[in-house]
Specification:
heterodimer; A: mainly beta; 5-stranded antiparallel β-sheet; 6 helices; 9% helix; extended; B: mainly beta; 6-stranded antiparallel β-sheet; 10 strands
Amino acid sequence: MAYGPELNVDEYVGGRINVDEVNEILTEAGSVKYRTTAWIACKGSTDYYCTLNALSHERGQAQYKSTAGGITYHEPFGYPISVYPGTLTTNVDTVFFRVHYSGNGPADFSAKEVITDPPPDPPEEPDYVITQADMDALSTAHATMKINDVVATLGDGINTDDVVLCTAGDGYLFYFRSVNFEYLNFMSETDYLRFTISTDFKTATYTFAGAGKNGLKLDVDSEVVEPPPDPPEDADYVITQVDMDALSTAHATMKINDVVATLGDSINIDDNVVVIADPGYTFYNNSVYFSGQNSMGEWLYLYFTLSDGGSNASCVLDDSAYSVLNVASEGQTQVSGVNNVYVVDNIKVAEINNERMVGTPPGVYDYGKFILNLINLPLEVGVDYYAEPSTVKLSGFDTEVLCSCLNSDIIAVDMGSITVPLIDDGFTDFKNVVCVLRLPWADSVLIDAGYVVGQTVTIKYFIDCYTGIATINITSTKTGGLIVSKQADIGVNIPFVKTVGDPMVSNSNISVGGDNGVLKPFFEIVKDEYFLKDGLFTIPVIDEKVLQGEVGYLEVEQVNLKVDCSEDEKKNIIDVLKQGVIIQ
Amino acid sequence: MILKLYSVKDNFNVINKVLGDPFDVDIVVRNDFDVASPLIVLYAIPNILDYNYCTIVDLKRSYFIDRFEVVNNSITKLFCKCDVLESYKADILNSVCRFKRKFKTGDYYAGNFDTSSRKNINVYESDKGFSGDSTMILTTVGG
């Protein structure tokens, strides 16, 4: 048996070869019968995979061997011969595939595949794949996204700890909480993984930690930035969008010579500039100042003077060239005692759970006993309630888990106003009218129509962060004050406090909030249906005056008749009037 | 004295009756004329039975024609009765009355209407409310 030449096919390393392409080299023909043997040598780095087939044949074999040993396997033609990754030692750098053929006619050999590199591992599923909906959301918000500094496109994957950066397009800015990954939490409620918005609102970043979140999707929005008006030519300083943003971020407003400043307003030398902190916020030393560089590149500062306990800052503009207003404030905390109120999510809760246990068994101390409550409120807490983020503290123990803080343990939620118009402008709007006020997460309230119809009713929730109990105050323009006050437990308590040694999680502190499917308060005004209200002979109203101007059917009970006629005619007139007349 | 004959469709208890076009007849009032319930004898009035109402301006009165009595082919007797509502309507409308009338806008007297067994329900929604989002709040004893 003559073997054909060994063919080194290094050039195919990493690719595929087809025996047909080198058939004339590999094939020998006999006088009567054809017989051929060919070796194909393949080099690779580790393992090999091969499948050989003869398209037409009578008998033969396909074999392989490696330099590390003899022939190790063979199969008749027509069956694939395969060396799967891992079956050869990793030191083997050459494998030979030998083809035998013996038959009555020429044969065509082909290799389905000769792959000198191991079959690639199937790509790992990323934690998140960018969808068309995400791309649409970015497009709608005029924003772009990068993942680890690489521009993201449809189908790109995001993995844990990848840095996701969204950038607002020209003329657009993000705003507070406008960029998030949205998902359904364990209660099937929408929750968010918040991006951190930059101070200039141009970018939003998030270190991805959303693996496994249910229904994860990108939620991004931006707002148009109106270009600032052209500054007056003689202005010494012009308020820019950056200044307005700084004021907004610091919860402050500005007045120039007692006039509220707006974008594009000019400030001239000797103008009196006052920055006023919103209620609940104060400035601190050197937190309000103008800054800029002179022609020598030196930085110049003009610090405002604080007054009214830090709620006001004022200065008189001098002749230096300032370019930017710097404003910072801090929220005044209205949390009772030394308690803390944090906004957390499931991840933060898990981190706190990891940190609260100190020591090793059996000497574990659980600082969780200093957790007062963990509740889920069915609302998004307003921006005004957010203080500077802080690490979660359990009494004197700092968990070092950074969370958003609230500056008050009572959250006031304006649930809006409802104006109920008069339909008939008459007693039909009130008689037998039942006014049912349906409230989110609370029982309905029956309110007398006198407070409701033709009035505006305002609803406010004051929610106790410790208990989730909302005090619901309802006022009416009828009295200008409170008409109903009631309480409802709108928080869903989450079992969290479990001390070491407890046999199981206690459910005693779970109380199901009253999710009644109502998001906005609304009135149901239930009225009788007066089906004969416009009937000619339906006369429910008593009146007393002259008949002039009246139209329709009426029945006179009493009349002071002033008529120059006979007595009989007077009696006749009165009788007819009492029986009922129609004035047309 | 002119007698104006009318064909009136309005009921007896209507004030401001629609009279239509009159048919004028010159009449002579004789003795024993009862102003409140006159008997009027007319001669050769075409289609006299088509009229049911009349006025005598000189007497400042309007009359219902209660009934007819045909004396012969030419003479018909009209038995009339004074319509006090039309005859004195100006004074009646300017007299102060206590009366019951239909409902009008601005009426807050709690009258009684006939009601059906059905109810009308109108819904008015607030301009604000929960967004559907939620916030998890952790409260701790601070250090």
